[in-house]
Amino acid sequence: LAAGDVALVESLIEPLHPADVADLIEHLEPEQLQLFLDITRHALEPETISHLDETLREEVVEQMAPAELARVVTELDSDDAVDLLEDLDDETQRQVLENLPAEERGFIEQGLTYPEDSAGRLMQRELVAVPASWDVGQTIDHLRGSADLPDDFYDLFVVDAAGKPVGSVPLSRVLRSKRGTGLNRIMDEELRLVPADTDQEAVAYLFRQYALMSAPVVDAAGRLIGVITVDDVVRVIDEEAEEDLLNIVGVGDTDFHAPVHVTAFQRVRWLVVTLVNTLIAAFVISRFEDTIGHYPALAVLMPITAAMGGNAGVQVITVTVRALATRDITPNSNVGRIVMKELAVGFMNALVFAAILGTLGGFWFGNLALGFVLGAAMIFNMVWAGFAGTTIPIVMEKLGFDPATGAGPFLTTTTDCLGFFAFLGLATLFLT
Amino acid sequence: LAAGDVALVESLIEPLHPADVADLIEHLEPEQLQLFLDITRHALEPETISHLDETLREEVVEQMAPAELARVVTELDSDDAVDLLEDLDDETQRQVLENLPAEERGFIEQGLTYPEDSAGRLMQRELVAVPASWDVGQTIDHLRGSADLPDDFYDLFVVDAAGKPVGSVPLSRVLRSKRGTGLNRIMDEELRLVPADTDQEAVAYLFRQYALMSAPVVDAAGRLIGVITVDDVVRVIDEEAEEDLLNIVGVGDTDFHAPVHVTAFQRVRWLVVTLVNTLIAAFVISRFEDTIGHYPALAVLMPITAAMGGNAGVQVITVTVRALATRDITPNSNVGRIVMKELAVGFMNALVFAAILGTLGGFWFGNLALGFVLGAAMIFNMVWAGFAGTTIPIVMEKLGFDPATGAGPFLTTTTDCLGFFAFLGLATLFLT
To answer: What is the pLDDT of residues B350-402, one digit of tens each?
Structure first.
């Protein structure tokens, strides 16, 4: 299809939503991609570009002239425009900014000053703010008369003389009230103000907790400078959940469309952690080489204790990390209860599995003492998993680290080493 | 505080948002909880109850009389009301329904007929639908005059004579248009209709992909029967991401506030899988007991191959599951490319780590052949991890299973067994 027929390709793309066109581009083979871009460059909607994944977006943007980019940036909402510009090198960024109208340029330059992943980056500058003294009629006339408004919006913000937000009015209330009704009589005064430097994770929490559609962003002086809408937050919630997931298994920040060597390198960090982990475990085992030489059966059974402890621990750690993220656990209130609960859960399951595996192991090698050692080591390790699985992420959160990052590999190191140590140690004591 | 002073407790709760009160309740110790409920039962807002986690919500609801429950249900939006009622036993459910006004009752009874986690359950019945023949003025007059409307809403739906949706109008457009403008001139005709039996995961995808604020839900005949708003979808996205996360580590469906024995039982399923997994691995090792008896160093190094393969595999599987969820991978288009990429990534990293660990292992035990065996087994296992980590979830998705569930434990079984087998097998060949 991408073999030259420009008109056909364009007519196929035209009815599609920008997000779908972006997906289409992401599914193309590299050689098709170049061809596709050559053909459609000028027909691509600015929105399509901002829907692309980071790696591809950079690729597409690199091929565009600064003036062309400036046109794209002008048509985007200010939050998407900042996203696009922040990836550019300084020189290109400067050239694009020079090609922008003054007001737009000011907005974006300021947007770029906020830290990445902050409310200042999420917000858009386009919003509708009206003075508290207006009534519904004045507001409607203003909306009808003014050309410089966002495409679609859902709440009005009411501001005082200093530009500080004092309330918000859902549009449905404006529509349903008589023209003479004062805005101050129908506005919600309970605003959830978001300072511009708030982390996006905290913003997502606010929206989820209070089912907000939009929230006003204020500067250090408390003045209204932008609005965050729920569709931006949907993206953040998705990203944050993904981040937790990837961090726990040790993948870290990934871009699905990154080339092989970049992906390989991203994975290395946690493989190194695993390497150190297994070397420590190997060192623990090496202390018992003589015992194993006499009883090779120990080598057969020894991975069981480590694996059961490790699995139980990763379950606990995942639940704990999620509970911290959703604030079901708050480090200063209910920690004791949570830890006690997981110790109890670990102990209950440990008893059951120790009984099963101890019996099985004992009969397999015709040695009941061996079964007893296996069971005892397993109980020890699974209870430890319950304790470490809750306390490691909670302590990391308290110390200001991301509880998801590294907690998994760190825990596995302890359950491996303790599992091998407990099993081989007990075996040395009771079997020799 | 909860030592009797009813008025004080009530005055403390009163200014709080229902979601915060629900969090407060979730943080109480069991004995405090009972006291708190006794005191605040009648002051609790219906919304607070619907914000509670499942276990607690059931506890609170069980203590209420059907008539009291009916009052709560009446005040809730229809989607929240259905959530609340579906957990009740049949008898209580019937009693509550009998206490409801006829229209409300009909809505809820129908809501309960939709499958759990479907669009029919997510939607609310309260919506604003207007005929396409109206103009802006008629619409505004209707909105001002009609008492029976949702609290706040963001889009109007335009329907034809048969009740089928033909367009939607963001309220901002109604406000900004002159009274004489026909709705059919300002409406969006590109509707994303959601059949009532659509799975909520597909609904979440629609909202995320097209940044929707609301979407019309239609019955089998195509008639408008409800609307899904983005705040409900935020909850779904959160739930689905959490589900993927918990499934990959094998926790399954969890309720953070469930009692110890319930939690312990929920975890058992995957511990059983781990148990079977390690028993198979133990069986593989037991085939090489003689070799290990001669070279206990093998027992020291053998967990390394398994752990590196397992870790690499879980990384790949997690990335693949996420890519399937976000539709970055679609089973019929780009599978070949993805698998090839992960094979390449696995091979690159395997070479590096095999060189490091092979050298280390060789020198540690003064036996270069041993180091070579370790390195070769590791390359084999990590490349396998790249292959299995991508193909297992993709095949599961193709067969109609949830790719997250069980893929992790299944993969670990293969990397453990193959890791031990490759390492011990090569050792037996080359060292004896």
So the answer is: 999 999 999 998 898 888 899 999 999 999 999 999 999 999 888 888 888 87
CA distance A72 to A53: 17
Set of chain A residues whose Cβ sits within 8 Å of the Cβ of B298: 299
Topology, domain B260-431: Tetracycline Repressor; domain 2 (1.10.357)
Would you list the domain boundaries of chain A?
6-117, 129-229, 260-431
Per-residue pLDDT at B237:
80
Which residues of chain A neighbour B47 with C-beta distances below 8 Å?
Answer: none
Q: Which of A20, A230, A295, A420 is the best residue to mutate to test the B interface, defined by the most B CB atoms within 10 Å of its own CB?
A: A230
Encoding tokens for residue B15?
């200014």
CATH architecture of B129-229: Roll (3.10)
Contact between residue A107 and residue A85 where contact means Cβ atoms under 8 Å apart: no
Rounded to whole angstroms, how far apart are CA atoms B22 and B43? 13
Q: Does A6-117 match A129-229 in CATH topology?
A: no
- Distance from the Cα of B56 to chain A's closest Cα (Å) equals 13
Residue matched to tokens 């911290």: A324
Torsion, CA A386, CA A389, CA A391, CA A392, rounded to 10: 150
Nearest by Cα to A316 from A344, A357, A351: A344
- Cα separation, A39 vs A42, whole angstroms: 8
pLDDT over 70 percentage in chain B: 93
Q: Measure the CA–CA gap between A414 and A306, rounded to whole angstroms.
A: 9
Amino acid found at B367: N
Which phi and psi angles does A224 have, rounded to 5°?
A: -70, 120
Contact between A276 and B270 under an 8 Å Cβ cutoff? The reply is no
